[in-house]
Amino acid sequence: MASAGGADRSPPPRRLVFAFYLTGHGFGHATRAIEVVRHLVAAGHEVHVATAVPEFVFTAEVRSSRLRIRRVILDCGAVQADPLTVDPLATLEKYREAAVVPRESILREETEWLSSIKADLVISDVVPVVCKVAAHMGIRSVCIGNFSWDFIYSEYIMEAGYHHRSVVWQIAEDYAHCDILLRLPGYGPMPAFRNVIDVPLIVRGLRKSRSEVRKELGLEENAKVLLFNFGGQPAGWKLKQEWLPDGWICLVCGASDSQDVPPNFIKLAKDAYTPDVIAASDCMLGKIGYGAASEVLAYKLPLVFVRRDYFNEEPFLRNLLEHYQNSIEMIRSDFLAGHWKPYLLRALTLQPCYNGPTNGGEVVAQILQDTAVGKECISDKFCGARRLQDAIVSGYQLQRAPGRDVHIPDWYSLSETEIGAGPTSQNVATKETTALCFEDFEILHGDLQGLTDTMDFLKSLSELNGNNLESPEKQHTERTAASVLFDWEKEIYIARAPGRLDVMGGIADYSGSLVLQMPLREACHVAVQRNHPNKQKLWKHTQARQLENAGLAPVLQIVSFGSELSNRAPTFDMDLSDFMNGEKPISYEKAREFFCQNPSQKWAAYVAGTILVLMTELGVQFTDSMSILVSSAVPEGKGVSSSASVEVATMSAIAAAYGLNINPRDLALLCQKVENHVVGAPCGVMDQMASACGEANKLLAMVCQPAEVKELVSIPTHMRFWGLDSGIRHSVGGGDYGSVRVGTYMGRKMIKSAASDLVSESLTSEAPVQSDCYKGNGTGLLKSEAALEYLCNLPPHRFEASYAKDIPEVISGDAFLEKYGDHSDTVTVIDPKRSYSVKAPTRHPIYENFRVETFKTLLAAGNTDEQLSGLGELMYQCHNSYSACGLGSDGTDRLVDLVQEMQHRATSEGGSPSLFGAKITGGGSGGTVCVIGKNCARSSEEILEIQQRYKAATGYLPILFDGSSPGAAKFGYLKIRRRRS
Question: What pairing do the DSSP bridges indicate for beta strands 17-22 and 121-125?
């Protein structure tokens, strides 16, 4: 791989003709092309630019008869659903229309055009097909860029359009015909190119000084100036004065003539020269693209950026900016809500330090000139290694789940070329033989998978390592205890399990329904270490207890981060012998009594209970001491399965530490036993299954009979799910949830009893039974209903036609017990003195199973408002059914009403809604509401508006759950050890 430093700068023997093909995707490509064109024209050459970019973009910058512009569309870039989101499927389909269907005519027409202008060299940034045309004609071709479309489109195909996979193959094949790639800093993997030359940043030069620009704009020299350079703002979105720190002025690029701005915002003229404005500003707010990244680096302007969906070049440019301390990220919700101030003030503390060359336009022009006259500019020495490395990284990136933060492997770091140290000379093998390390730890097994919360967890461990804490009085007790929890010289096992958003199914899970669950971005991490009892680090009180008992026995020590937020003790410890009754484990009932002794430590049942369940159900013997650290970002009491995430993460980490091979389904069922029998909460299994078996951006479709994963349903890219917390604490251990479950099982018993009576009647009666239930159905159907195990297996029409009229609205516990004996539920008990609602809890799972089946089918329908309306209506129906069961709440009803208001407001204004439905989730009686809407900026704005309106009405700002991440099985486990110096 050659560097640009040694190019021969001798002038060419004649005037050359360059054909410069430029993608129409964004003006960033055009701005760098202009710099190259400027140098080629200045050297006396003729440049023909073929592009979809408007002509004035070039002619305003380069005024010469030697520059010709030809309008043509040969690719489509990326189709954006809104300024922050790409539509992957629409992109692939548009590329097919623009470049695949007319390919033969493109090849023919471009051959004729290149012949007509007598081109000496074809330049592409980075239009694929022209490399093929040039090779066919025997003309050399050069590509310029920091990414290529084969890499960008590959994830789109995996996510939305696998039937378009031949598109990527064709693009890569076209690029392979290119003679040289001139690779710009901030590059991503581009393995299709055979020969690569790294070139400096291509940056437009300044025309005016900082003082001149400020004077023209009427700005004081010491004024704090923000440049808002967003390249398309969300529709209907208004800038507000209070979004800026006091005394700041914001310069707005690309504002429409009709856009009103507050007095502390100034609309720039459409022909404002951006580099001058950048150099005159104090920081910039915008999106990361090559144009913005190169110019803020060159002029040392801090960039506050908002991340975009499916812009796959972004992580590599972000890596470049972070390397030079040039950027900070603003969370999208804060951007849309106008919470800008902390980010802008933080940006002023950055110290951008890029001092590398910015003469890429000149360097590139010289290489193009030399290549056109036949000079060899490249060396093959490192090309094979780099192509292999790029191919590995391409594969790595394509394995990441959508919705997960993109992480670039450490060994694919900035090249020496990018940091000004000359050409890249590292080979891949050296990088691969270096073990992946993070902070102070060596990762012996597993993969961070780009999950930033896992990186943060490892950082928190690193801060504990070696008791490297600030003075104890300034620390939470939990961190002081955690600092002496582990032996840092030994292996530690880490598992991760997310919370879940109940999209459809909810309380119908314990009745056998199909459920659809989405694993959340928020997750619980658990670290486990096992030690011989005589080598275990013990807290002082634990050590005293051991000495009092005259011997060192295996102990369990647990630290839970976040205890100060939930009024619970931060630590728990016990002798593992307390779980034994002679040679056998104690009963679950005894364990429940054990954990209830101290209310502040009852939380430990979710963690330690996994040990007892493994002992009881699998016969595992724990002879070692065990240290467990729990750190959960899944908020408690919000109906998003905080308890399941703790149970699944804990059991996964213990299984890894002890070499237990438990498949994900069985692990989830075991964790359900922890909650049902040790904790005493009568939940179904869907929470544990979603946490264990889920995958990012997919709905786990599971039939709870008892726990059969049907499939993982990809969430269509045009839709999105959010969770909004009502602020009303939810608990599956509460009375409402338990009483509804009792009523459901009562209803099942009544249906089975009625069906049994009819079977008996049909067998003893000589005349055929003419009851509504039996007529035309036969004894076989009645027998199956008499043996009904799961209420959801009863179709709605059978329930309404045959049983509904005989199910009472309410029945007392003693009346039911007297007539039916028992309700046959192992995790709830009927209180004879209490009355139970029966009809609504019985009807709910029967209809909910039907709704979920319909919902799942609709997900595969076409991308239309009718599809989203249908899905939303099913969610509204589910919400109303919860309320009929007595599991609603004022807070969740208010949130659902707000979603309906947003939907109806858009319709009444003659537009298309962005939000389409909402429902209460999980066990109900508070907790979180699930919302469905379009995957666009407008829907995000409306979600933020709902948050603010809810706060105005209740004083509580709902927590927003937005995003997805892999379940515990997909994550696997990490095995780490402190690095040996």
Answer: parallel
Cα 209 versus chain centre, distance: 43
What pLDDT does residue 470 have? 43
Q: Which residue type occupies 814?
A: D
Question: Rounded distance, CA 226 to CA 262, Å?
Answer: 14
- Beta-strand runs (E) in 235-310: 249-252, 265-267, 283-286, 303-306
Residue showing tokens 């008992």: 549
Per-residue tokens: 280: 């005159």
Reply yes or no: is the peptide bond before residue 913 cis, omega within 30 of 0: no
Query: Residues with Cβ < 8 Å from 103, sequence gap 6 or more?
Result: 129
pLDDT of residue 232: 60
**Structural tokens at position 579:** 């779980």
CB 553 within 8 A of CB 546: yes
Q: Quickly list H helices, 821-975.
A: 839-859, 865-885, 890-908, 937-954, 968-971
Which residues on adjacent β-strands are paired with residue 85?
82, 309
Q: Which member of 174, 502, 687, 725 is catalytic?
A: 687
Helix (H, G, I), strand (E, B) or coil at 921: coil
pLDDT at 424 over 70: no
Q: Which two tokens stand for residue 41?
A: 């024209």
Task: Give me 500's structure tokens.
Answer: 């879940």
SS3 call for 772 = coil
Instruction: Please tell me the distance from the alpha carbon of residue 646 to that of residue 105, in angstroms, as a whole number.
Output: 60
- Range ranked top by mean pLDDT from 434-448, 466-480, 774-788, 824-838: 824-838
Return d(Cα 137, Cα 124) in angstroms, integer.
Answer: 15
Tokens of 55: 């002509």
- The mean pLDDT of 724-748, rounded to a whole number, is 81
Closest CA to 688 of 924, 919, 524, 826: 524
Cβ burial 45-83 (10 Å sphere, 16+ → b, else e): bbbbbbbbbeeebbeebbeeebbbbeebbbbbbbbbbbb
120 catalytic? Reply is: no
- Nearby residues of 131 by Cβ (< 8 Å), 6 or more positions away: 122, 124, 141, 143, 174, 175, 176, 177, 178
What's the average model confidence in pLDDT over 905-913? 90
Query: Mean pLDDT throughout 906-922?
Result: 92
Cis amide bond preceding 126, omega within 30: yes
| CA dist., res. 746 & res. 737, Å (int) | 14
Dihedral sign of CA atoms 755, 756, 757, 761 in order: positive
Task: Tell me how crowded residue 489 is: count the other CB atoms within 10 A of its CB.
Answer: 8
Nearest Cα to Cα of residue 721 among 509, 919, 976 = 919
Average of pLDDT values for 733-762?
87
pLDDT > 80? residue 82: no
- For position 429, what pLDDT does the model report? 31
pLDDT digits (tens, 9 = 90+) for 376-413: 876 554 455 556 666 665 665 555 444 444 555 544 54
CB atoms within 10 A of CB 294: 28
Across the beta sheet with 141-145, the strand order is: 2-3, 196-198, 180-183, 141-145, 121-125, 17-22, 46-51, 67-71
Query: Which DSSP category does 98 fall into?
Result: I
- How does pLDDT run across 3-38, given as a tens digit for each residue? 444 445 556 668 999 999 998 777 778 889 999 999
Most confident of 229-243, 393-407, 637-651, 751-765: 637-651
Cα dist. 77→71, 184, 488, 676, 796 in Å? 16, 18, 50, 53, 49
How confident is residue 431, by pLDDT bands cut at 50, 70 and 90?
very low
What are phi and psi for residue 216, nearest 5 degrees? -65, -35
Mean pLDDT of the chain: 86
Q: Is the pLDDT of residue 915 over 70?
A: yes
The token duo for 787 is 């043996």
